[in-house]
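Honest question from a wet-lab person: if I give you the sequences of every part of a complex, can you actually get the arrangement of the whole thing, not just the pieces? Trying it with mine:
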Amino acid sequence: MTEQIQNMQPQKQDNDEDSQQYLTFIMANEEYGVEILSVQEIRGWESTTVIPNAPSHVKGVINLRGTIVPIIDLRQRFGIEVLDYGTTTVVIVVKVAIASEHKVIGIVVDAVSDVFSVNNDDVRDVPNFGEDTDLSFIKGLTNAGEKMVILLDINRLLGSEVLPEAEQLSQLMHNLDADKQVVNG
Amino acid sequence: MKQILAVDDSASMRQMVCFTLKTAGFDVTEACNGDEALKAAQQSEYDLVISDVNMPIMDGLTLIRNLLTLPNYKFTPLLMLTTESGTEKKQEGRSAGATGWIVKPFNPDQLLATVRKVLG
Amino acid sequence: MEIDLSQFSQVFFEESLEGLDAMESELLNLDVNNPDEETINTIFRAAHSIKGGSATFGFSQVANYTHLLETLLDEIRDGRRQMTNEHQDMLLLSVDLLRNMFDALMRKIDFDDPLLAQLEKQFTIEIAKGTKGAAPEESDSSNDTLVEQEATGLLHWAIDFQAGIDILRCGNDPYLMFNELRQLGELSVNLAKHSSPEFNDIDPEACYLNWQLELVTDQPLERLKEVFEWVEDECIINYSSSPVMNGNANPDSGPSNIESTEVAIPQEQQGSETVQNDVGGKRLDEAKTSNQEPKPKAASKAKLPETGSIRVSIDKIDLLINMVGELVITQAMLGQIGQQDEINEESFESLKQGLEQLATHTRDLQESVMQIRMLPISFAFNRFPRLVRDIGQQLGKKVNLVLKGEDTELDKTVMEKIVDPMVHLVRNSLDHGLETPEERLAKGKSEVGTITLNAFHQGGSIIIEIIDDGAGLDTDKILSKAREKGIVGQDEELSTEAIHKLIFKPGFSTVDAVSDLSGRGVGMDVVRQNINELNGSIELKSTQDKGSRFTIRLPLTLAILDGQLVRVGRHIYVVPLVSIHESLQVEPNKINRLSDGHELIQLRNEYLPVIKVYQEFCHTADAKEIKDGLVMVVDSNNEKIGLLVDELLSQQQVVIKSLEDNYSQVPGVSGATILGDGTVALIIDVTGLVSLAGITNMKEHAA
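Yes, you can. This is the full assembly:
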């Protein structure tokens, strides 16, 4: 474990700017962050038109001011137990670049939490869980006060081919959680 | 600012001529053929008219002959855009009353040099 | 000045392609033996503009080639050369070649079609054959060599300039010329002896002056002549030079100076009388310029346009502006009502009125915006005169092509996609429809066959007809062929109409042997399919020995679709109306189940496979069995199939939205639309649904 903690020290990248703003949201008691620049708007849950034979995490499409926008349930994508959609269920509409094309996609999350700036120096790399698992959809980990936030690379997250299977993913999240305890402790 | 009327039926040539002249600080009006040009010339006064020769509706030479009948254009320099194969056209142009010509193909620098030659 | 010429390339390409279209259609219109002056002029102008532009913008390959065309056409235009059929053919081939050259330029690839060299040679030979008694073009090159050799040592020039009386009237100002000379070296200007008329006879606009100019310069005589180039015909200009004796000249250059003076003096003597030579020199210069390789910078910077552009008439734009104006007024009116604290009866009335206006304006605006994409079908028709001429010639058939309704407008995208099927149909009419002149005469018809292309609007559709007065379909042969191929049962009797429809069957028309029938040949199924993909349909009427008429019906735009809303469980789908034949409830005794689980229904004397939409789409539906629901008989690649749905809802025009923009392609779904209540409904792609259901060969099932 000590080694892993070592690995998590910031090693790289002072890219363009020193800090970036993130929108964080809650899902199954975890806090996740997406770059605020990719967020178009936040909406309440509304019923969708189902796409036949789509993967189960694709909830369907909605009409967003004349544009057809697919809605993706992130819980289902992450293999977390699915909740019924309620009044607090939120859709974050993000603009992502997938294979050089820009797509607008809505992601269903439990609730929106906060907006805060993260200094790039404060972003730690994801611990290595073995070579088979591609965790490149996670940009890194950071602390916001007491809490640990998982920063997502939205482009990789929604450019589906890089994402591990839901089951595998839920296991990873679990590991990440265990790991977090160590960091915090 | 000197006002120039540029006449050519080819949109790309027109764009090139206008862009070059505008970049050099002239005020440029475009026309697609002799008829349009003549109407424009009657509406406002230009310091120089640069015209292609072979155009539909009204060709460049007819334009020049017509312009010279307008009192305001008696001494206005009128330049023809011509190609090397139009040797006789040059003669015709001269007798129609053109001031001079610019031979296609020309580059922006040559165009400006010629324009400065007549506008001083 | 640094101006990047590549920024004009795109416009140049577009106008050149338009020029080529014009050239082609004029060439086809041309009566070779008695060419119309204006027609020749239009053809010449197209070649001329392309040459001028390509030379200017650095496309030397095009410039060199069009120069040949231009030279030939110029001679024809002047009457120096008689137009021949051979010229017409060469020019038509050139149109094709140039289109390919432009295509290569736009895609920034090298153009190395051997046809280029071949045609170039043909033109050169043709031009070299000479005109009616004209002298060969290239004049004595010795003079040019002299120009080349001219020394550039410092010379003292004395220029005697007797201005022509009219030079001011041509806008030439001696003052500006002297200024230009001054830039070449040290200049002194003296007024020379001149004779002006009596004061009363003086024309204030005339120039009576002569000047004696002295210039010390290292510039060659050519350069000095350039200054007076425009006036040399009407002015008397004498140049004489002597070496600069004292002072600054480099002693080493002394002897060469003298030499060059000797050379320059005969040159100067020629000066006044040899416009000819002067022009020859000029030509050489220009030839050099145009032969230069295009500036690499311009070529490499040229950007390919990512999206096509469209030309919109000012009228359409004005109309749009008007409507937006109306919309703004309505908005202001509604805004005013909105600012009131409360709504009373009166303001409620105006609110209603305003909303009504808004609805009207929105609808009008939508229509007008759609109009922008509309182009007259002449853009598609234009290529046919050429095609008909070429193929007719090849086949030895005499054809008269009639174009009707060329102003009928349709969506640019639809137009682009309908051209290929039309070409196919016209080729077919030429190949299999029209008879040879002998056959026609034998049948008592005129030896010239007629193919008519007609277009008109009908409802929300455009109808395109391709009509020939040829042999028509030979129903007996088609039927026996179909029986042979097992497409039609041996004992099965078909109506004439049904037999005609056979030619659209994939199994039928891809058989090579069919093309020797006097009927229609290869690839009709592909035509059919292409038209179906545009949500259109094709019909055929044919009478033996009288001719055939293909009728294509297309939506005016791809953006809007006439749809039938259907319900499957709690899901609403749109089915393109054009593909629906009928909808019906099926009696249990008309339903057959196959061993592989697929079900067939009997409809009159046909058996149709049925696709249960809910099954393919994994939905829960009310009607799980065919007998419980509604079967919609639809067309997929000219085969009828049934779709099982729960209920038919309304029919309406829907605006097609892309699913792929933000998601991806979905099998069985061609797109989405937004219904009146703001929800999204998906549009069913019948052909996609058929392959999703795994029905590969429906005939096998039905058999």
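Two things worth pointing out. The first strand of chain B starts at residue 3 and ends at 7. The CA atoms of residues 3 and 44 of chain B lie 9 Å apart.
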